[in-house]
Design a protein that fits this description.
mainly alpha; transmembrane; single chain; Na-dicarboxylate_symporter; about 450 residues; 3 strands; malate:proton symporter activity; Proton glutamate symport protein
């Protein structure tokens, strides 16, 4: 159960609340009921899509201002601007190493398991019109186009386009300018802090209907795509899910252990957000709560404000695993030979095309089309084979991306010496008593 304190903090009083009043339990019930309704009454389930869409839109309307206020406050509060640059550099390096490891892991596993071998699918037998819109959108996924898109055409455009990276770009510049304004900028900094608290209270209010949104989103997913889509490609789906799990438990688990904490305790601490990511098939809608949760765990605001928004663009571990696995799977399924050199080239291309993927449903499919178009070897029309299961695959992608960014936030905070160890240990050992403070 959530209560809002006088200072604008949201306290999770789950210790005193009955089990059915806890948000993660309500979300889990909503997901289960949604899956049941979608399975038993597919038409009804598909018609419930607006419930999930409404929740996502309500949260997304606050994402841009929250990212802006958090980043500006974090940077303007720093005494040394070199620290902001150092945090940014460490973050990007960490993300590049992590995503490269994810790409290589996906490539190794798909070659060992070979789930597409023996399917003998002819690309000519697939309806290319089903993926025409994705192929069209993939043409905009060039590196130069991506870099130019980071710069908003107008300040207002950064907030209305829904592009978090544009908001982050403007927020960094604004935060630096506010810091250089010195004492004269203190009233603006105080106003930003108060506005931030108001917005986090707003998010707390919206999150009370999260179980309903998760119910509608899951009912739509099962109702529209059904269990039949899963059964046809169940082998590939199982391999992909297990690979993501391997990356989280082994890869991120080792990183977490080296940083002095348990990946399992971090996952337990973020269980409510993870359930929402699962139910809504995307992680962008939990970003405001994610930011607040990591600050409550003892990570410095300046680090949280830079790492999390950047991670939503650059730290797409699950998406990278999917890109290499899906590309090679489609080559196997269509009997298209791929040499070792071509697969290494695929990894290089994916390192570039994955940066054009946002943490929203469907983006991984668009980037897959861009990747296949870039390597020019596997028929682009073959992605129609994955169309029916992409919604289910996006859930695993989003969960992996989210956990990867959470680990990165803690690691970078520790590197910078900005992690309050005592508060972090308390939060992970007793997540139900954690306080989300803006």
């Amino acid at each position: 159960m959530s209560t809002i304190t006088n200072d604008g903090a949201t306290r999770l009083d789950a210790v005193a609340a009955p089990w059915h009043a806890r948000l993660y339990v309500q979300v889990l019930i909503g997901i289960a009921l949604g899956a049941l309704v979608g399975y038993l009454w597919p038409d009804v389930g598909a018609a419930l899509k607006p419930l999930g869409d409404a929740l996502i839109k309500m949260i997304k309307m606050a994402i841009a201002p929250i990212v802006f206020l958090t980043v500006v406050h974090g940077i303007a509060s720093l005494g040394d601007m070199r620290k902001a640059g150092r945090i940014g550099l460490k973050t990007v390096i960490y993300f590049e190493v992590a995503t490269t490891a994810a790409l290589i892991l996906g490539l190794v596993v798909i070659n060992l398991t070979r789930p597409g071998v023996g399917m003998h699918v002819s690309p000519a037998s697939l309806d290319s019109r089903l993926v025409a819109s994705y192929v069209t959108q993939s043409h905009d996924q060039s590196v130069v186009g991506f870099l130019m898109n980071v710069i908003p055409s107008t300040v207002g455009g950064a907030f209305t386009s829904g592009d978090t990276l544009q908001v982050l770009f403007f927020a960094v510049l604004f935060g630096i300018a506010l810091q250089r304004f010195g004492e004269n900028g203190k009233p603006v900094l105080q106003a930003i802090e108060r506005l931030s608290k108001i917005l986090f209270i707003l998010i707390g209010m919206i999150m009370r209907i999260a179980p309903i949104g998760a119910f509608g989103a899951m009912a739509f997913t099962i109702g529209k795509y059904g269990a039949g889509s899963i059964l046809v490609l169940s082998h590939f789906m199982l391999v992909f899910y297990l690979t993501c799990l391997l990356f989280i438990i082994v890869g991120l688990g080792i990183v977490s252990r080296l940083a002095g904490f348990s990946i399992f305790k971090l996952i337990r601490y973020l269980r409510e957000e993870l359930l929402l990511v699962l139910g809504l098939s995307g992680s962008e809608s939990v970003m405001p709560r994610f930011i607040d949760k990591m600050k409550a765990a003892g990570c410095a605001e300046s680090t949280v404000g830079l790492v999390i928004p950047t991670g939503y663009t650059f730290n797409l571990d699950g998406t990278c695993i999917y890109l290499t696995m899906a590309a090679v799977f489609l080559a196997q399924a269509t009997d298209t030979p791929m040499s070792l050199v071509q697969q290494i080239g695929l990894v290089v291309v994916c390192l570039l095309t994955s940066k054009g993927a946002a943490a929203i449903p469907g983006s991984g499919f668009i980037v897959l089309a861009a990747t296949l178009g870039s390597i020019g070897h596997v028929p682009v029309a073959s992605i129609a084979l994955l169309l029916g299961i992409d919604r289910f695959m996006s859930e695993a992608r989003a969960l992996t991306n989210f956990i990867g960014t959470a680990v990165a936030t803690v690691v970078v905070s520790r590197w910078e010496g900005d992690l309050d160890r005592a508060q972090f240990v308390r939060a992970l050992d007793n997540p139900d008593a954690a306080t989300l403070s803006s």
